[in-house]
Design brief:
Number of strands: 5
Shape: globular
Number of helices: 3
Radius of gyration: 14 Å
Structural class: alpha+beta
Distance between the termini: 20 Å
Strand order of the largest sheet: 1-3-2-4-5
């Protein structure tokens, strides 16, 4: 997958569901001062699995994940995209990725408005292990401990 700003693709918002949500430890580290808006949203076709201090979203029919739709400030998109890719240890096309950055449809808090957004989902090998041995987050709405887990963990 190519970096969108480098190849003229649209500057899409990000759907975050873990440590980047408001009140979680990576929110202030990565999003403060870089966002124009943050609003509740849901994404269908995903389920959450508990990770070591952060969750993984796994593509699964029938699943629903709660999170936030984050829109970058004008002029801060490239910087934010690069920071989030680094946080998630995502490199386009790298088979060692734990996450893949993909475009999926999120539904805003009004329950009616759909928006295309970037989301980091578990890479295929990770997703397969989680489906077999992982611990699902029952309601698809992850909330960590608010700062006690190591900083810079994916989310």
């Amino acid at each position: 997958m190519s970096r969108p700003s480098s190849f003229g693709e649209a500057e899409l918002p990000f759907f975050v569901y873990g440590t980047l949500r408001p009140g979680e430890h990576n929110h202030d580290l990565f999003l403060r001062g870089r966002t124009r808006s943050e609003e509740p949203a849901r994404m269908r076709g995903l389920s959450l699995y508990a990770g070591p201090g952060y969750p993984y979203a796994v593509e699964e029919p029938g699943g629903v994940v709660s999170g936030e739709l984050v829109t970058a400030l004008s002029g801060a998109y490239r910087e934010l995209l690069a920071a989030l890719d680094e946080l998630e240890e995502y490199t386009p096309g790298d088979p060692r990725n734990l996450y893949e950055r993909v475009v999926r449809e999120a539904v805003r808090g009004d329950g009616r408005t759909a928006v295309r957004a970037w989301v980091y989902v578990a890479a295929p090998a990770v997703a397969s292990r989680l489906r077999t041995d992982g611990k699902p987050v029952e309601n698809g709405d992850w909330h960590g401990d608010g700062g006690d887990t190591p900083a810079r963990r994916p989310g």
